[in-house]
Amino acid sequence: MKTKATQKLASWSSYLDKELLTVVLLLLGLGFIVMTSASVAISQRAHSLPSYFMDRQLLFIGMGFVLAFITYQIRMSYWQSLGVGLIPIIFALLVIVLIPGVGKEINGSSRWIGFGSMNVQVSELAKLVIFLYLAGYMVRHDKKLITSVSYKPMLMPLLVLTLFGVLLLLEPDFGTVVVVFATGLAMLFLGGVRLIQLAVLLFGTIILMIPLLMMGYRGDRVMSFFDPWKDSTGTGYQVTNALMAIGDGGWFGSGLGGSVQKQFYLPEAHNDFIFAVLADELGFIGIAITLGLFAWLVQRAFVIGFKADKAQQYYGAYVAYAIGFWMGFQALFHIGVNLAVLPPKGLTLPFMSYGGSSMLVTLIAMGVLMRVHTETEMKLRGVPIEKAPPKKTRRRTTKKVLKKAPKKAARKVTKKPLKTKPQARRQRRVNV
After folding, report:
1. How does DSSP classify residue 104?
2. Eight-class DSSP state of 100
3. Which residue from 47, 177, 319, 414 lies 20 to 30 Å from 141 (Cα-Cα)?
């Protein structure tokens, strides 16, 4: 005989997406191993403790799982109603980050707010908030986005994305701007916006981003991107060392801990260039496995979105698509920078790079994605998503109904003879 607790646990676990959970655990495990190997030397030099970054990353993963579990308990309808209200809050935080003395500056960028020994990167949280808002907007204006020939239905999301991009460029954080705009345009495409309109938007976005990309240090990086070996000790230092690390890996890699470039040659080896260390120590086999895991994750997000769309859970479907595009674009951009296919910019590799904000927000997004799958399965199986009212409330309502029922019945009985008196008199006259 199964106990009630066992039955409840079995019913709860039956709605979990086991494939999504598996790929997330595999990415976290692989990332934790590579990050630990990449951070030993810099951890020893900066903090006199080889396991400093490893311990903190393990703490971030644990906190991320707790937040993901809490997020999983929240219904998607609540996120849908809260999406618009979160936009002013996240914009206010992005402005606060830019205030001198409040925002914490690291490596020339002011992206963090300090809380004791931890720094919160607001732009990471802003990604999730923007995508939740866009999903809600597309549900509310679905027909207008599909049928309208003008750009009026797209003005509001484009305005939000533009303000978001301006604040990020002031930090500066150009990589996040690229990921958010790419994901936003992909969501508009899935929402039914015409290809001609999207082409115009994409062309206009590229025209605006080119001069921004060529300003200041970003322009030097772009020029060195075309020929990094020309100034291998200056502007091309990051790219050349990343390419040497990837080239040293070969087919099977130099083995865990065997990378030479991570020994103070490759900047941010445990963060922005962790893929280069992975390729160095695990070789082409490690690269193929990593790409396969991210492809599996994106495919799973799209499958969840397709099922939610069929179950008429449109908001959840858009959120699933957004998370899939987000993870896919960010992984591709990070890998492209490490392979010198794209100009260098600071972007973490989801689940793998060191960083508390990135890890926490990524796992929260996985909790939201798992919730979309759960609500879709409940809808398809005919299980109500809304919780039943408490027992006390139901008892009180039934007592009130029972007390009022006799009074209503008595009124009806007393009114019936009054209605039938004229009919009785007419019947008597006919008989006479």
Report:
1. E
2. B
3. 177
DSSP class of residue 390 equals: P
The amino acid present at 409, given as its one-letter code, is: A
In whole angstroms, give the CA distance from residue 273 to residue 267. Answer: 7
| Of 242 and 117, the one with more pLDDT | 242
Amino acid identity, position 179: V
pTM for the model: 0.82
CA–CA distance, 272 with 261 (Å, rounded to integer): 14
Query: Distance between CA 260 and CA 245 in Å, rounded?
Result: 8
Residue 211: asked if its preceding bond is cis (omega within 30°), the reply is: no
Question: How far apart (Å, rounded) are the C-alpha atoms in residues 280 and 297?
Answer: 24
Q: Which residues contact 370 (CB under 8 A, 6 or more apart)?
A: 16, 17, 20, 21, 68, 72
Q: Rounded distance, CA 179 to CA 346, Å?
A: 12
Sign of the dihedral defined by the CA atoms of residues 15, 20, 22, 28, in that order:
negative
Using one digit for the tens of pLDDT, what is the confidence trace for 92-138?
Answer: 888 888 887 777 777 667 777 877 667 788 888 999 999 999 999 88
Rg, Å, the chain Cα set = 29
Looking at the DSSP bridge assignments, the partners of residue 112 are 104, 121
Give the chain's length.
432
Closest by CA position to 56, among listed 364, 361, 365, 354: 354
Determine the pLDDT at residue 253: 87
Q: Tens of pLDDT along 302-360?
A: 999 999 999 889 999 999 999 999 999 999 999 998 888 887 777 889 999 998 889 99
* pLDDT for the residue 56: 92
Backbone angles phi, psi at 154, to 5 degrees: -95, -5
Does the CA dihedral 336-168-83-65 come out positive or negative? positive
The pLDDT-based confidence of 365 (bands split at 50, 70, 90) is: very high
